Every structure is written in structure tokens, then in C-alpha cells.
Amino acid sequence: MSASLVLILLMAVLYAGGVYLLLGRSMTRMLLGFLLVGNATNLLILIIAGPAGLAPIVADGVEPSEMHDPLPEALILTAIVITFGVSAFLLALIYRSWRIARADVVTSDEADVAVGGADSSIDDEESSEAEDGSGEDTEFEGRAEAKTS
Amino acid sequence: MNALMNSLIPLVVLLPLIGAAGALVAGRRPKLQVTFSITVLSLVVLTSAVLVYLTDQTGGHAVTVGGWSAPFGIVLVVDRLSALMLLISSIVLLCVLVFSVGQGMADGDRETPVSIYHPSYLILAAGVFNAFIAGDLFNLYVSFEILLVASYVLLTLGGTQARIKAGITYIIVSLVSSMLFLASIAMIYGATGTVNIAQLSVRLGELPADIQLVLQIMLLVAFGIKAAVFPLSFWLPDSYPTAPAPVTAVFAGLLTKVGVYAIIRTETVLFPGNTLQTVLLVVALLTLVIGILGAVAQSDIKRMLSFTLVSHIGYMIFGIAIGTVAGMGATIYYVIHHITVQTTLFLATGLVERQGGTTALNRLGGLLKASPVIAVLFFIPALNLGGIPPFSGFIGKLGLFEAGAQTPSPLIWVLIGAGALTSLLTLYALMRAWSLAFWRPKREAHEEESPALDRIEEAPEETSAVQETKASPRIMIGATVAMVTVSVALTVFAGPLYSMATRAAETLESPADYISLVFPEGGVS
């Protein structure tokens, strides 16, 4: 099976960028990372399907060997729909989190910090930053509406 | 017989989906909605019970959806393992639904907005059932997504800050695992040209050994995240405890077990031969020991239970790693036991939270006097999980150790030792929780330090805030009593159940049986 090198490179770049973004603490970055990783996986399925062929419609004069395998496309479509639904839900969560806490970052778990003792100074800094609303990861302006609602 | 099976198997998924649609339409009429969901899940329990009986007679059945024969169409396969999992999960889902209905009636819609809760819950059920009967890998992926998306909604119900924080962690971790799973499906399809599990069972064996190993590890990592196996388990104790009590109960009981079920399928049908035994044994050892040490350090009952959940997944991985019929049979019995008992404990904790106003051990006290019923309802599953004879936890662990001792190796002896130690530490953690929350007089909880609390840090303010205490309605207690009864029934009927689990394991150990279900005429290549 031969595969397009350009597609493989694109997939690698998408995976790398996606994983890098997913590792951040900002929710918006995680969403973007998820979108990149999702698209990279779709590309992987496309690459697996092999080089392009004729449309898989039974007609006179078309040999099955010339047709393109339709199953990977079906898999990709399903995966795209799922990714779309989950991103919509994530966006809703991010918006909700912004309204409530003015924070776009995920803070450390309090119970973990309590059990872990003094090792958590770094996390505390980040979470207190988020509580002031002056976190650098938060790029929105304006006041949270949660205090009023 | 086959016609009956053909119509019964899709019903298991169809009924909850129709129920979800109905519950969504009836969103403004809570009573109608509740009747609808409970009826639907009761029907599923009946269907699964019939399926268990029929599959035990015939060995199983495969439905070709839409009449497209395998490997071109989607197949739904029910063998003994699937049928058992369907039955136990439908019973657990029904009991928890009744519990949450009781909670909803008592508290109104504040904690669990009913109009969204019921449809999401039924879709979660449909996803879980679909995962158990999926006959091809992509269908398994889709069922994972169905149950995960429903679980995202359930985990973030109400949208409070704590739940959104826990939800984000859970969602991102689940998404990563789903993407890994999808990527492995893509690679498996590229290597073999099929996603049908029965056909893969033949074709994967023909691949070079190193490619097989890569594919197997990718699948195991994806399922390992879902099952919360040790190095991949850190998300679980952070995300489960914040959800409403019934949601946590059903997540703890079922969702991780769907991962374990997928691991069982991977290790038997897809990649028979137990090539990764050493790796699985080491992972099981670490899961057991590190999980339970985490549980001992916790000061909150819900978090403590989440850590015991992680720890006990180790027993199941241990059983899978032994790889014999005895080991697999014990694993199946243990999975059934653990689904029931872990759910019961979380439901009982939900009752404790209502009665005591908190689940922080340093503030609870005097509950035995206040509510002896809850004390008993927590005590029985606690002993059961800790492996005290004659309960099912003891039978399951004994079965695992026996199976391990039949194929002795130094590492397996270490694991048997670690398993016994974990059992004792589970008992220690649960009994300490019980005696602090129930036995300790109420005033001591406010005044003096108990020696048992020395090792526990003060619980963080946010989680230990004492809420108002509320009486528990009969319907909630009734649902918990039903779950305790089911868990005791696992002991009473241990004989037939264990022999059925062993028969299920025999089917698993010979992939030819599974293949002949999907391709009755043979000719698979």
C-alpha cells in the first residue's frame, strides 16, 4: 500500500500540535487540542484507506479493484459527527465555567493538595491566579456575571 | 428459538433509546417521565433475564442488523459473558434509577434536574448495553461514545463550579482514550481490512508478531484508561465524587467495568495466547497496592470508595492475566460481584450524606443511633467488598487465588499475597469509615481527635462543608435494600452463577466458538 507523504506529515503535525495544546491548563486550548487530535485521527483513517479510486458504485465497465474502499469514509463521517457533538458540549462547559468563576484554567484538586501536603505550592499559585481573574490564560475581558446571577 | 433471539437482542438497546426519546418529550411532566423510564428499564431487565437463560442453553446468538450478513453488516453478538453483563447491569441501572427518583421526589429538581436527567440516564444505559453486545470494533467505539457523552452530561448536572472542574478533567481524559481507540481501529483496519471482531480473531493471528503487539498495546491502553488501571487511573478519584450520589454509584459500578469487559474481549477473542501476561500481572499488582494505599489516606467516604474502586480493578486484571479458564471464570464472577457491591456502597454513602450532611469522616458521627438501617446497609456491602466469608467478595477472591495457584510462578505468588493484603486494607479502610461515621458518638466528632484520624489530613473546606441534614425517603432506602439483597443473592446463588461464569470463560478461551456464532456456515478468512 502506498500513502501520500504530505498527508502523513500533516497528520504528524496535527497530532503534535494537538497533544501539546491538550497538555495545557486552559480549557480553550484543550478544546483546540482536541479538535486537532480528532482531525489527525480522521486523516489517519483516510491514509489507511489507501490511494483514491473510483466511486464505489456498481456500474458497467467498473472493476471492483478500481473502486475506492468506502468503509473508512463511513468511519470518518461518524467520527466527525461525534467530535462535533463533543466540541459543542465542551464549548458550553467553557462558557459556563467562565460565567461562574471567570476562570478558563483547570485548578488542582483540593483533596489531592490536602493529602499531598506542601508539594503543591506551584498549583496554589496558578489556582489563586485564576481566582483573581487575572490569569494570563484568560483572554476574555469584562466581569463575571455569576456574582450577580 | 433463533427468531426469538433475533427479536430480543436488539430490544436491549432499542428500548432505552425509545425510552430516552419518550422521556425527553415528557420533560414537563415528571410523573409520566418517571413511569416511562422505570417501565423501559424493567423491560430490559426481563429481556436480559430471558437472554441469560437462552444463551446458557444454546451458547449464544448473533443478529445481523438489517439482514446484511457478516462481515459486511453490523452484527450484535450475545454469548454467555454478554448476557451475564447485560443482566447485572440492567438490574443495577434500574435500582439506581429508583433511588434517584426517590431523591428527586424529596429534593425537587435542584440537585438533579429531572427533565435532562432521565433521557441522559437512559442513553447511558443504551450505550452500556450496546457495548456488551457489539460484534464489531467500530460499533464498540460508537457505544463507548454514546455512554461517554451521556456520562459527560450526567457528571456536570446542574453546572456548579466543582462539577464543571471535575467534568473537564473527566471529559478530556475520556476523549484522549477515545481518540486512541479510534486510531487503533484505523490501524487494525489498515492491517486486516475488517472491523468485525470474529473475522479479526482469524486475521490478526496471521499478522507478524510485532504488529500484533503494537495493535494489542494500543487497544489495551485505550481500554485501560476507561477501566482505570493503575498508571492511567488518576482521573477517577478526582472526577467521580463530585457528581450526585446516584450518578456516582452508576458510574463506579458500570463504566469502569465496560472497560474491563473490552479488555477481556481483547485478550481472549482478538489476541488469544496471553502474550502480555507479565505486563498485565505487574500492572495488576501496582493497581491493587497503589489504589488501596490511596484509599487508606482519604478522609472523605466518596473519595475513599473511588480509590477502592481503582484498587479492585486490579483483581480483574489479575484474573485476565492468569489466562486459564479458571482465572477467566473467577474474573467474570468478580466483575459481577464488584458491579453490585460498589454501586451499593455508593448508594449507601448517598444515604449517609443525607443523614449526616457530609461525607467527610472527621465530621460524621453518631449515625448508628440516628439511623440503624443505614448502618446495616453500609455494613453488609463493606464486609462484602473487604472479602469476609461467606460473601461474594470472598468467593470471587478465593476463585482468583485458586486459579493463580494452579499456574504457579513467582510473580503470581506475589500477586496472591498482594491480593490478600489489599483485601485486608480494604477491610481496614471501610471499617474505619464505618466506626467513625456510625459508631463514634456525635459529640466526639466535634470535640476530640480520634487515634484513627491521626493519619488523615483535615479535609478541605469546600468538600467538607456540612449541609443541612435531610431524612431519607422510603423509596431511596428501598432501592438500597434491593441492591444489598442482590449482592447477598450473589452469595446465595453463587453455585449456579459461578458455574455459568466458568462456562462463559470456556467459550472465551476458544475463539472458534465465538467465530461460529457470527459465521455459522464457516468459511471465514
UniProtKB/TrEMBL annotation, chain A:
Belongs to the CPA3 antiporters (TC 2.A.63) subunit C family. It is found in: Cell membrane. The chain crosses the membrane at residues 6-23, 30-54, 74-95. Residues 111-149 are annotated as: Disordered. This is Multisubunit sodium/proton antiporter, MrpC subunit. Keywords: Cell membrane, Membrane, Transmembrane, Transmembrane helix. It comes from Agreia bicolorata. One of its GO terms (cellular component) is plasma membrane. The lineage of its organism: Bacteria, Bacillati, Actinomycetota, Actinomycetes, Micrococcales. Pfam families: Oxidored_q2 (PF00420). Residues 121-139 have a biased composition (Acidic residues).
UniProtKB/TrEMBL annotation, chain B:
GO terms for molecular function: NADH dehydrogenase (ubiquinone) activity. GO terms for cellular component: plasma membrane. GO terms for biological process: ATP synthesis coupled electron transport. It holds the Pfam family Proton_antipo_M. It is found in: Cell membrane; Membrane. It is a multi-pass membrane protein. InterPro entries: CPA3_Na-H_Antiporter_D, NADH_UbQ_OxRdtase, ND/Mrp_TM. Signal peptide: none annotated. Keywords: Cell membrane, Membrane, Transmembrane, Transmembrane helix. The chain crosses the membrane at residues 33-54, 61-78, 84-102, 114-134, 140-158, 170-191, 211-236, 243-264, 276-297, 304-326, 332-352, 373-391, 411-430, 475-498. Residues 134-418 form the NADH:quinone oxidoreductase/Mrp antiporter transmembrane domain. Belongs to the CPA3 antiporters (TC 2.A.63) subunit D family. This is Multisubunit sodium/proton antiporter, MrpD subunit. It comes from Agreia bicolorata.
